């Protein structure tokens, strides 16, 4: 229950936060909603010298329309993302996946940016951001840069966010009118995903005009299932097409093995869940 | 004139629990919220290794850390010769290792304490704990029970010469309570009209996972040493502290303030409690210890962990002729307070509700280098119930019979009570037909069987299974003579006192020690009826050896069936005294005084006195009979003549997704016969909680150790407990055949749901997929295990499931339990 000692800074602007991070050096850790950081602090699996708490930066909690994008502040709580009408209308896959994150308490504290920056491959939102080609706005000492989702996730718990940098905003293209579904498989209702599949389809009549598919916990990072996407495009949204496309679900994956699911079972799940997710999205 | 057995207003009333507001809001005294002035804080430095020699402990850096008062090993405290008690020597030649307060030369399980740090704050103690350097020489861990018993096995305690703690045998042939199982098996093997079914079941290791972590505070200032502890057993703890440390019993006051759950996990005399006493005496200051959740999962005792080899014999017509039970029970590294006896409690329950003519029970307890095991909700009886209810389904499958019908063929019919079983227990009451009939109706058993057949016929990817458990349990622990015959180190009575205050209010002191059960409400209801006073006027006092000096505490569904009856007996004495006083004041013969609803009246007149008036009269003592003391107060100690035997029929509708292996508990119906119901709301709460815990064993929970003896799921991220979101809305009902062994007719309900539900779920899972060729799925029946079982049954090979690897994701980041220092990014 008692973490190792650390210094605590609570800046009130991004600029102050960047300065605080620079001053604190390489042992600093950013606190967003704290839902992943606090347990590891309490178990002393991490012992940062300084915690920079972004909780006082009001400007990081916005959810707004920005041209052809929905821009979400990194500190927007899951609960707010999930309930937001703009998100529901234009990025419904994100609403659906966010609804499956943990429990209400966690969703009120945990943040979109925190979850994505933490980059747990079992986290639900990475696969969504990847499938939907989100952009990540990152602030640092030398200003702001934007990283596409395809370059954001680097490895286990490792992203393109550099030392001294802060994720400030995640920008999702609008997928207005797309059919979406997040199919999650876990041991208990509030547990992490053993495997999950995020699907967005643009349907044209009964056929699939465009497809975006992301996989959760099938490798060191979220994975874009491009083989599945390619197999779906141009097909009727039928059970047969879904099953056939789902056979491509494990291409390019490196499924982890653990007590909940050895890799062969995880691969099997990825195929079954992909088929189900496509059918559910297609309605 | 009787004060019992009349149906009255309070008994049976669904009162909301009077203790809930303070317990739920936390605005009450839990142990950790008690911090006397000047309290020092203890942190335990624990071994990360399961089995290792201790070469040295370097305390210097920790001793120099801020706020540190001292760093101590057992030798430093002079307690290296002290052993913690085991109160249940199940056999005269049982092997019993010394269980030290802190490991001295060798650690025997991962999580065992090696040193303690005492500091001015808990944070300083914790920080300094990281600075204690312990030099270990790793030894071979002992993890597998069968391997531990083999020749040449590494010994957990070499001085014992074996890893076998004891072997305990009951043979109904030898005992004269039934036939010989060996003969039943030989006969069945030789008879083409008989079958012999042998199965091996595994009772996985579970962690009790109570909500409030363990905690204790010891204040040595004052004449008596005061010990506050989050314990189920304040009275036993006091006596055992004397036995362990030699502090005179009269110099000890033990208080269990409000306690947040226990499930058996707080029946123990903890090394940490004894260390706090020793440190408080040494330092002359209050000393406090509160464990973290991870410490709790790692070092608090675990439950279950048995291998069960079961052989059942039956005629082809379904009549069971014999049951042979061979258990291996994992004790862990040491013996807990009642650990060796836990599997033995199950010995009497394997025959369950059935007329089994021959039964033999053999249990070998084994030492391993794991956390010790001891009582966990049901304690021996869930294990027994699981085995018998599983094997009855296996027998039904073997014979091609409906499993419910097969049970009915073999169970004791309601006309046959009282019935003396093959193990010599006398079941006083019960009606298995009634409970089963109601359960079938609520469940719509026949319709679900039809749906099952349809799904099977069309090869639906979601198959339906019906899980059955018709259980009984022995509750109300326990008749002292029976405990004596089992060499248990205490009696089974319970004590109560009633104080009639001058204002007419009533204080009731119980020796039971609630930790979430609702005693204050249920006992108040009983007393309100017994004395005819308002429910609100009754105050229940408990858990403090200064106010309730006698008691044997709370476990084994005993609080109502034993403790509640002690209260009734005390109330009867109060009424007898009040009647004598009433007769005197009313100038009538005692024989003419009638007592009803709190009023003592002279028969045939309107003259009378309320019990409150009599309490005041006794307090004033201006006018009372010469042969009576001026007091209505009374004490009682009740020793039950027999156990009580709740039973019930539990039915589970289980869907198995054959593509993913996912098990979905669609519906759960149970009809329990728990005798007279004091408070239906409390009963329902107990049943719901019990079901959740039993279902969790079937579907979710397991304490996993890797090949080095490290507990690999020692946090709530990976020790999987279900929440309300994982369980259906239970459909529960109660029928009542009152117990004849006590004046209230109560039987006990605290463990029923847990005992009954585990086999119901596993039977249901197998019933859904048995037609696919699946013979068994080990608990917990996770989706992965079910999927693999289906694959293997269909001839497809699958890879091994690792138990000892963590994938980097899912939860705490890259925690590798074997490399806990691994930095999280």
List the SSEs and their pairings.
The complex is a heterodimer of chains A (283) and B (825).
Chain A: E1 7-9, H1 14-24, E2 28-31, H2 37-42, E3 50-53, E4 63-66, E5 69-73, H3 78-83, H4 85-90, H5 92-99, H6 104-109, H7 112-118, H8 125-131, E6 135-140, E7 143-148, H9 149-152, E8 153-155, E9 158-159, E10 166-173, E11 179-185, E12 195-204, E13 207-216, E14 223-224, H10 226-232, H11 239-246, H12 263-282
Parallel strand pairs in A: 1-3, 2-3
Antiparallel strand pairs in A: 4-5, 5-10, 6-7, 6-10, 8-9, 11-12, 12-13, 13-14
Helix pairs in contact in A: 10-11, 11-12
Chain B: H1 20-25, E1 40-46, E2 52-58, H2 60-63, E3 68-72, H3 74-77, E4 106-107, E5 113-119, H4 122-129, E6 133-138, H5 145-149, E7 164-171, H6 172-175, H7 181-190, E8 194-206, E9 215-219, E10 225-229, H8 234-245, E11 252-255, H9 271-283, E12 287-290, H10 293-299, E13 303-315, E14 320-332, H11 342-345, E15 359-367, H12 381-399, H13 403-410, E16 419-420, E17 426-427, H14 432-443, H15 445-457, E18 462-472, H16 480-485, E19 494-500, E20 506-510, H17 519-531, E21 538-541, H18 559-585, E22 593-596, E23 599-602, E24 608-610, H19 611-620, E25 634-638, E26 647-657, E27 663-673, H20 680-699, E28 731-735, H21 752-769, H22 783-793
Parallel strand pairs in B: 1-12, 10-11, 14-15, 20-21, 27-28
Antiparallel strand pairs in B: 1-5, 2-4, 2-6, 3-5, 7-15, 8-13, 9-10, 9-12, 13-14, 16-17, 18-26, 19-20, 19-25, 22-23, 23-24, 26-27
* Mean pLDDT score of chain B: 95
Uncertain segments of chain B are: 1-7, 813-825
Widest sheet: strand ordering of chain B: 3-5-1-12-9-10-11
Q: Termini separation of chain B (Å)?
A: 75 Å
Quick one: how many beta strands of chain B?
A: 28
Tell me the series of helices and strands of chain A, N- to C-terminal: EHEHEEEHHHHHHEEHEEEEEEEHHH
Count the domains of chain A: 3
Distance between the termini of chain A: 46 Å
| Beta-strand segment tally of chain A | 14
Widest beta sheet: strand line-up of chain A: 4-5-10-6-7
Computed Rg of chain A: 19 Å
Fill in the CATH topology of the domain at 34-139 and 211-261 and 266-299 in chain B.
Answer: Aldehyde Oxidoreductase, domain 3
Output the CATH topology of the largest domain in chain A: Uridine Diphospho-n-acetylenolpyruvylglucosamine Reductase, domain 3
Biased composition (Low complexity) (chain A): 251-261
Region (Disordered) (chain A): 241-261
Biased composition (Basic and acidic residues) (chain A): 241-250
Protein name (chain A): Carbon-monoxide dehydrogenase (Acceptor)
